[in-house]
Write a structure and sequence with these properties.
Helices cover 28% and strands 21% of the residues. The chain has 15 helices and 20 strands. Helix 3 crosses helix 9 (193-205) and helix 14 (367-381) runs antiparallel to helix 15 (389-413). The radius of gyration is 23 Å and the shape is globular.
């Protein structure tokens, strides 16, 4: 999710001996941050030298509730689950059923990218390292904010998404190719992704509460509920509120990050990663060779400027490996990944040379706490002096949201008092984008309305803004509003619709800017 990732730089320093325990008064510090941010609940796991030194819950499972978060409460962990998908693939690689450099098209019938050459050349390694040429978050609207699409239907849409850059030329984070990786697991194993992960990752690893399907998650009594701030002019402002837990991303996207784990399970997962796949019972979840492949930098992530006061957080390099970020600061290698789905955020961090790992999960979108506490723990284990990073990130995030609010309000206050060019009924009709599918623009007593047919309950009024541009204000306040611009041909007929998010801090998964709708022919059009 974009603004939660936009402050994603991590402060690190030169390597020094790992300390023997979490910071002094750590529980008190977590509670202080949790309460100040109005986060209902958190869970944290820390492992050192193969031992769990902390697996604990803080607060409650939902706003206004009394059920406490404990070490077995499951939280949605977002994109940190990409590493689970990679681990599932690793079991197939170790079994000789796949190779990281196998061509996807040879293993997954029906796989097709927009470009035929890319289709032929893309390897399994390419699927996992964000260098396909697709743009940032391309195709996410096929499952954001929710969807009934199957993985096969998402594969069908994939071939219509135009690349933003050439193949393997640079880094752009995506989710859809991890969905392809899930379909690949299904094609090779003969099992559904969810059952394969359960049988070949969770069970051998002893992850007792982890789940990768919505029915199991919603049937788990000891689960956290999502929360966010969606009542303000931009997401992140307004009062914190409980969100609808059934309004998660489409189930087809599970391999990209719709998994759930507890602090106890995260502690076990951290230990397996740090032990290069070795299990506590002496077996191997995946081989040491696969572990090395997972952490090997593949795609360089560009490093931009950092805000004043955050100079110490600028890394010497960042890269993406297989389901993990790899960074180096002052001689210390850090393996990490952040995660966010609506109402939940997570951070998983490994310091291999210290044999230390930790995970932070939260049931609210309070990114300053997650990022700041991550830096505090890194400072502790790398021997740096204490810095109140949560306060610094809170100031940074508040400034970002305040500026975004001002930008949105400024545009709302100064539209040109021109248009629309046509009677409202002339805009009505069905329109289709090659990869997303259908939308319907209709006219009622209150004016125009828009419905994203392929996304359940993604509908709302179209409010005229200026010229032939309207603003889609969706009935679900959790969906980012969008400018909807109707393009007219020489005869004054609508020949296309383009869109872009209203908020400059809108999550990149609302990739309205990639849409290009054209009219669906009908009688009278």
């Amino acid at each position: 999710m974009k603004f939660r990732h936009s402050i994603a730089l991590i402060a690190l320093a030169a390597a020094c001996p790992a300390l023997a325990a979490p910071p002094a008064n750590f529980d008190r510090r977590v509670e202080e941050l949790r309460k100040a941010s109005e986060t209902p609940g958190m869970a944290i796991a820390i492992v050192e030298n193969g031992e769990t030194v902390l697996a604990r819950g803080y607060g409650v499972r939902k706003l206004g509730g009394s059920e406490p978060v404990d070490a077995d409460t499951i939280f949605m962990t977002g994109s940190t689950g990409k590493a689970v998908t990679v681990a599932a693939l690793a079991t197939l690689v170790d079994a000789g059923k796949l190779g990281w450099n196998d061509k996807v098209v040879d293993r997954l019938p029906g796989f097709q990218m927009y470009d035929a050459w890319v289709t032929r050349e893309m390897t399994i390694r390419d699927l996992l390292t964000h260098r396909s040429g697709l743009g940032l978050g391309a195709g996410d609207l096929m499952f954001v904010p929710r969807s009934n699409r199957t993985r096969a239907q998402m594969l069908e849409g994939l071939k219509h998404i135009k690349p933003a850059t050439s193949f393997r030329s640079g880094y752009a984070y995506d989710n859809i190719l991890y969905t392809v990786a899930g379909a690949l697991i299904e094609a090779v194993s003969g099992q559904s992704y969810e059952s394969f992960v359960r049988d070949h990752v969770y069970k051998p690893a002893g992850l007792l509460t982890a789940t990768s399907d919505e029915p199991t998650r919603l049937a788990t009594v000891n689960r956290a509920y999502p929360h966010g701030r969606i009542s303000g002019p931009v997401r992140g402002l307004g009062a914190i509120q409980q969100l609808d837990e059934t309004d998660q991303l489409g189930a087809a996207s599970t391999p990209a990050g719709l998994l759930a784990m507890s602090a106890n399970d995260l502690a076990k997962w951290l230990k397996i990663q740090l032990a290069h796949g070795k299990l506590e019972n002496g077996g191997q979840l995946f081989s040491a060779a696969s572990s090395a492949a997972m952490w090997n930098p593949e795609t360089i992530i560009p490093i931009g400027p950092v805000p004043p006061g955050f100079e110490a957080t600028k890394p010497m390099f960042r890269a993406y490996a297989l389901g993990w970020d790899v960074s180096e600061y002052g001689g210390a290698k850090i393996i990490s990944h952040s995660g966010g789905v609506f109402g939940f955020i997570t951070m998983v961090v490994l310091i291999p040379e210290k044999d230390v790992g930790f995970a932070i999960t939260m049931n609210a979108e309070e990114g300053a706490v997650r990022r700041g506490l991550t830096n505090e723990l890194l400072d502790h284990y790398l021997g740096r002096p204490f810095v109140d990073w949560p306060a610094k990130y809170k100031t940074l995030l508040t400034t970002m949201l305040t500026n975004a609010k001002a930008a949105v309000e400024a545009k709302a206050a100064t539209p040109a008092k021109v248009g629309p060019s046509l009677p409202l009924d002339r805009y009505a009709g069905q329109y289709k984008d090659p990869w997303y599918g259908l939308i319907t623009v209709s006219q009622g007593n209150s004016g125009l309305a828009i419905n994203f047919n392929e996304t359940p309950r993604m509908s709302g009024p179209l409010v005229h803004y200026q010229y032939d541009t309207f603003i889609a204000r969706f009935d679900d306040r959790g969906i980012e509003p969008a400018y909807v611009t109707f393009g007219l041909d020489a005869e004054g007929k609508v020949d296309k619709i383009t869109m872009k998010a209203v908020s400059p801090t809108a999550d990149f998964s609302f990739d309205y800017h990639d849409l290009n709708f054209t009219p669906v022919p009908s009688a009278g059009r």
